[in-house]
Design brief:
Blueprint (H helix, E strand, L loop, with lengths): L6 H13 L3 H8 L3 H14 L18 H12 L4 H10 L6 H11 L48 E6 L2 E2 L8 E5 L3
Antiparallel strand pairs: 1-2, 1-3
Helix pairs in contact: 1-2, 2-3, 5-6
Length: 182
């Protein structure tokens, strides 16, 4: 990122503007953009000074101090979702988003894991989360390119049709049609 112009050049530009020169002539003489001169004039009118604003710096997180303490207590009090926490923070007047809440929860090492509500798969053997991997499927039980959850059907037979019925390969306007399972 470029540095802001010095206060010296800002003062010289505005001295010329006060003398009655046009913005474009000032910009050409000082080799700066005409919009710079206009913005400096507005800055002096609004603030009374010509000092450049801060570039960069650290922005304090919204979820810190008292907000962070409240959020830690809320998380430990019971089940939660990120969206629900965001809504509760908004109700307290704290403007934030789901991503900021997720970052806070992740940084604190806090989480709420839902219990499994579904039964294990009947097709394949499942393993406990803390246990070793399940048994491997023996080679040859599934065809190459097919998964155990898909069944193999007949392949489509492609025939060429034109406007009146089945034709030879000499026709210009051919349409492919599948017969059988797609």
């Amino acid at each position: 990122m470029t540095r802001p112009y010095s206060e010296d050049i800002r003062e010289r530009a505005l001295a010329r503007a006060d003398a009655g020169e046009t913005v474009r002539s000032i910009a050409e003489a000082l080799q700066i953009s005409p919009s710079c001169v206009t913005k400096w004039k507005n800055l002096r009118r609004d603030t009374g000074g010509l000092a450049p604003g801060q570039i960069g710096g650290h922005k304090k997180r919204v979820l810190s101090d008292a907000n962070a303490d409240w959020l830690r207590k809320r998380i430990r009090s019971g089940p939660f979702t990120l969206r629900k926490l965001t809504q509760e923070l908004a109700a307290r007047g704290i403007k934030t988003d789901v991503r900021a809440v997720w970052t806070f929860v992740h940084a604190e090492g806090l989480s709420f894991k839902k219990k499994r509500f579904y039964q294990p798969s009947r097709i394949a053997q499942t393993s406990p989360v803390s246990g070793p991997d399940g048994k491997r499927i023996k080679a040859g039980l599934t065809s190459r390119g097919w998964f155990s959850s898909t069944r193999r059907g007949s392949r489509p037979i492609w025939r060429r049709y034109a406007a009146g019925g089945l034709v030879g390969s000499a026709s210009k306007h051919l349409h492919l049609s599948a017969i059988g399972r797609p």
